[in-house]
Write a structure and sequence with these properties.
The structure is a single chain. The chain is built from 13 helices and 17 strands. With 390 residues, the chain is α/β, with parallel strands linked by helices. It has two domains: 224 residues, FAD/NAD(P)-binding domain; 107 residues, D-Amino Acid Oxidase, Chain A, domain 2. The strands form four sheets. Strands 5-4-13-14-15-12-16 form a seven-stranded mixed β-sheet, with helices on both faces. It has a five-stranded parallel β-sheet with strand order 7-2-1-11-17, covered by helices on one side. Strands 8-9-10 form a three-stranded antiparallel β-sheet, with no helix packed on it. Strand 14 and strand 15 form a beta hairpin.
Length: 390
C-alpha cells in the first residue's frame, strides 16, 4: 500500500517558510501547504538581504535555485563603512575582486524566486492562523481566521516575531531591546542626492556616537534605506508629543536628537524624501529554547528573534527551513526529524542571538564607535588600505 503523505502546514510565507516548502517538494511525497496572512504576494518586502555562503547560499543550493539567485545578486553590496558623528571615515572595507561571501538580493526578488518554484496552490494567501488544538496523537487541528479547520501531522511556525505557533511551545514573548529605529530613505539617490549617495557608498554605512547611530544601506535601483537608531523609551514619541504620522514633526524631532552631528551626516535626515517609520527593536531571550513537542516546531524569527546588529535574520531562517526539510526527508518518523533539527538549530541560533545582542550593545553605546571599529577590524582582518579616505 502507498503510505499516506505527511501533512505539513508551514505558518508564514517568509524566506524561511518558502525555502522549507521548496526543499520538501523536491524530496516528496509530502503534502505541504504554506499559510500566509497577506492577501497576496505583492505585500511590500523591505530592503536587500545578505546571503552568506554558509547559510543563505547553502539553503538556495538545496532549493536548486542557486543559479537564478546568482544572476540577481549584488556582490558589490558587501562594502562597509564606519564613521563617527563628525563624518570622519574610521573604517572602510571594499570586497576584493571575486570576493562574494555574502552578496545581496532584493527581498521582493528573493520571494518571487521562491514562490515561482513551488507547485501551484502551495501558498494559501489570506490564511491567518487563529488557534491550534492538540489531538493527543502528535497531530494538531488548526483553526484559521475564516473559520475553516485542517488537521496536520506537523505544524511549523515560520510566522515571525509575534508567532501564533510559539505559545504552544514557549511562554516567552519578545521584549523591547531599549533601542528604536526610525526608518526613512531616498529615491534615485545617485541623481537627486549625490553627496548622500557618495557618503553611503555601494553597500552599508554606520555613523555612530554616544548611544546613537545613523545607519544607511543601498538597495536596488538607486534607493537608499536609512535608519536613525537611539536608546529611548518605546513610547519616546508620545512622551515628547511627536506625531509619528507627520514626517516633518519626525524629521525635526530626530534632528534635535542628533544635534551637534556634522551636516554631512545629518543630510541623511534633513534631505530624506521618504516617510519616517518608527520601528522599536524587539528580541527573544537568549537563549530561547523549548521542550520538544511532537507535531510542532519553529524556524526563523518565531524561534530566535534578534536585533539586526549581527546581520542575521533571513539567512538563518532559510538555513532553518532547509535543514528542517532535509531532516524530514531523511527520517521516516517526523518526530525524529524534528528532534534532529532542533538539536542543531537551537544552539546555533543562541550563538547568533548572543552576537546580535553584543553588536547592539557595542554600536549604540556611550563608547561608540570604538567597540564597532574593533569588531570590524577583527572581522575583516584589517588592512590599512581599507581605511582610505571617503
Amino acid at each position: 500500500m502507498t503510505p499516506t503523505p505527511l501533512r505539513i502546514a508551514i505558518i508564514g510565507g517568509g524566506p524561511g517558510g518558502l525555502v522549507c516548502a521548496r526543499v520538501l517538494q523536491r524530496h516528496g511525497p509530502i503534502a505541504v501547504t504554506v499559510h500566509d496572512r497577506d492577501a497576496a504576494a505583492a505585500h511590500p518586502q523591505g530592503g536587500t538581504l545578505a546571503m552568506p555562503e554558509a547559510s543563505g547560499q547553502l539553503a538556495l543550493r538545496a532549493t536548486g535555485l542557486y543559479e537564478e539567485f546568482d544572476a540577481l545578486a549584488r556582490p558589490e553590496g558587501q562594502e562597509k563603512r564606519l564613521l563617527d558623528h563628525t563624518g570622519a571615515l574610521l573604517f572602510r572595507h571594499t570586497p576584493d575582486p571575486g570576493e562574494d561571501a555574502a552578496p545581496e538580493i532584493d527581498r521582493a526578488e528573493l520571494r518571487r524566486l521562491l514562490l515561482d518554484s513551488l507547485t501551484p496552490d502551495t501558498v494559501r494567501w489570506g490564511s491567518y492562523l487563529r488557534t491550534l488544538h492538540p489531538l493527543g496523537d502528535g497531530t494538531h487541528k488548526a483553526v484559521f481566521d475564516d473559520g475553516h479547520t485542517e488537521t496536520f501531522d506537523l505544524v511549523i511556525g515560520a510566522d515571525g516575531a509575534w508567532s501564533r505557533v510559539r505559545p504552544m511551545l514557549s511562554d516567552e514573548l519578545p521584549h523591547y531591546s531599549g533601542v528604536t529605529f526610525v526608518e526613512t530613505g531616498f529615491e534615485d539617490a545617485d541623481t537627486r542626492h549625490p553627496a548622500v549617495a557618495d557618503l553611503v557608498g555601494d553597500g552599508s554605512m554606520m555613523a555612530l556616537s554616544g548611544n546613537k547611530g545613523l545607519i544607511a544601506r543601498r538597495d536596488i535601483r538607486g534607493h537608499l534605506r536609512v535608519y536613525a537608531a537611539f536608546r529611548a523609551s518605546q513610547d519616546w514619541a508620545a512622551e515628547a508629543g511627536v506625531n509619528t504620522g507627520d514626517p516633518e514633526e519626525m524629521r525635526t524631532a530626530l534632528l534635535d536628537r542628533f544635534a551637534g552631528w556634522d551636516d554631512t551626516v545629518l543630510a541623511l535626515l534633513r534631505e530624506a524624501d521618504g516617510e519616517f517609520v518608527n520601528r522599536p527593536l524587539f528580541a527573544l531571550p537568549v537563549p530561547h529554547t523549548w521542550a520538544h513537542t511532537p507535531g510542532l516546531t519553529l524556524l526563523g524569527d518565531a524561534a530566535h528573534l534578534m536585533t539586526p546588529f549581527a546581520g542575521r535574520g533571513a539567512d538563518l531562517a532559510m538555513l532553518d527551513g532547509c535543514e528542517l526539510a532535509q531532516a524530514l526527508s531523511r527520517h521516516t518518523d517526523p518526530d525524529d526529524a524534528v528532534r534532529a533539527y532542533e538539536a542543531v538549530m537551537l544552539p546555533r541560533s543562541a550563538r547568533a542571538a548572543a552576537d546580535a545582542a553584543a553588536g547592539l550593545d557595542h554600536a549604540i553605546s556611550p563608547e561608540a564607535p570604538h567597540h564597532s571599529l574593533r569588531h570590524l577590524r577583527r572581522r575583516h582582518r584589517h588592512r590599512p588600505r581599507t581605511e582610505s579616505g571617503r
